[in-house]
Amino acid sequence: MASRLTEISLDCHDVDLLADFWTAALDWVVLHREPGLVELGPERREDQELLDAVRSGPVPPTMFLASVEEDKAVKNRMHLDLSPIDRSQDEEVARLLALGASRADVGQTGEETWQVLADPEGNEFCVLRSLAEGHFTL
């Protein structure tokens, strides 16, 4: 059996600012909070239930936000891709911009089908095509 992706960690200055942004962006909740560290995820599960689920197949990873002193210096080498499920790509981009995201230039040509944004601390992520009914076809 292979390993499972269970957590994504993101270093940042302000864990509370990014917790507010990412919980709203992903419709997640804060699962755990302590000074300098916040865990976000889709829901809270009992430990044994979560362990059984992880052992039986992939589950959505949680996100850890960890406070660090260093500034972000260059483009992320790994980033998140978000797919809107109940609205158009443009409507989702507008919603994320209203939550505090900003547009990011990572060298795109303008021909891409995705849009590149950055969270309030500058971590790039992409908004892919919409998966909403009427927007996505196979």
TrEMBL record:
SUPFAM superfamilies attached to this UniProt entry: Glyoxalase/Bleomycin resistance protein/Dihydroxybiphenyl dioxygenase
Where does the Glyoxalase-like domain start and stop, copy by copy?
A: 8-128
* Highest taxon, organism lineage: Bacteria
Q: State a single Pfam family of this protein.
A: Glyoxalase_6
Q: Which PANTHER family match?
A: CONSERVED PROTEIN, HYPOTHETICAL FUSION PROTEIN
Its recorded name reads VOC family protein
- Give the originating organism: Nocardioides seonyuensis
